[in-house]
Amino acid sequence: MLRNPFLRILFALTTSGMFCGAAVAQEAEEKPGISDLALLSQAINWDGIIRAVFIIALAWLLLRFVDRIVENLGKTIAEHRLAFQRINAFFHYFVYVMTVVIIVMFSFDISPEIIALFGGAAVVALGFATRDLLASLVAGILIIFDRPFQLGDRVTFGGEYGDVISIGLRSVKIRTLDDCTVTIPNNLFLSEVTSSGNSGELEMMTVVDFYIGLDQDVKLARDLVRTATATSRYIYLPKPISVLAWQEPLDGCIAMKLRLKAYVLDTKYEKDFQTDVVLRVHQAFAEYDIQPPVVLAPAASA
Q1: Which candidate, 183, 228, 269, 285, has a CA 20 to 30 Å from the CA of 163?
Q2: Is residue 36 exposed (0-12), middle (13-18) or buried (19+ Cβ within 10 Å)?
Q3: Is residue 71 a part of any domain in this protein?
Q4: Is residue 297 included in any domain, yes or no?
Q5: Distance CA 79, CA 201 (A)
């Protein structure tokens, strides 16, 4: 039983198409014969194919032009960068669908005989050949509407961590922090766990851990971490800064662990923020003589 409404609709359309194709095929068999080659030549509109090529080129130029506008707007109005990218994703889907519809209308003259010729076998062959593609297409629509993540989100999926730069008809593209582009089929996101760090917002929580000895001034160390974080150029101050502390085993000793939880003002500054805070805290610990945990050597046996 298909629980997802999109999958039920797709299944119903495919099933009804197969029945309609079989009925038309039976009707066509009762008519006096026209050769398959003649039917094929009648189906193709060669003038329409030439126009379809120009339509594809025009759609490509339009998408590139809009992408350039969105990129410039994102640089000029940084706080709305993600909104511009999401609107652009919907626009891409609209252009894709309209281009395919227009190409089919221009390139083929559809008649009952043509449907009978290609109907049954084509539906079965196309169904097997495009099974994964259709699954990715449906998954892409679900991602757009269900929004487990959005364009610009910093996500973790399948061991990859980076920013979502494209949600296409077939796949999602992620740019990792090492500036590599990873392409993932849409249907994989329906069965595996995806973690989004910012959920459509520019700011994102960042976690940094520090370790000090049990005999150190924990309250002073917490204050130093909080101050170093609050004075960073990358901090998003409207949201709170939290510094948690607890004891934790660490390489043969018990250490005091300080966990900083704060928000960076833009996901693209995540690693800059972490580096800035670590350097500031390291300098503050040195000035106030806050020592790291010390691993004691085991006592020699008598």
Answers
A1: 228
A2: exposed
A3: yes
A4: no
A5: 9
**Per-residue confidence in pLDDT tens, the chain, 302 aa:** 444 444 444 444 444 444 444 444 444 444 444 455 565 566 666 677 788 888 889 989 998 898 888 888 877 887 777 778 778 877 887 888 888 878 877 776 666 655 665 565 556 665 665 666 677 777 877 787 778 888 889 999 988 999 998 887 788 999 999 989 999 988 888 778 888 888 888 899 999 999 999 999 999 999 999 999 999 999 999 999 999 999 998 877 889 999 999 999 999 899 999 999 999 999 999 999 999 988 665 544 44
Same domain, 115 and 135: yes
Neighbouring CB atoms inside 10 A of 140's CB total 21
Q: Give me the sign of the Cα torsion angle 271, 273, 279, 285.
A: negative
Is the residue at 210 inside a domain?
yes
* Model confidence, pTM: 0.57
CA distance 90 to 150: 12
Q: Which of 186, 216, 188 is nearest to 286 (CA)?
A: 216
Number of domains in the chain: 3
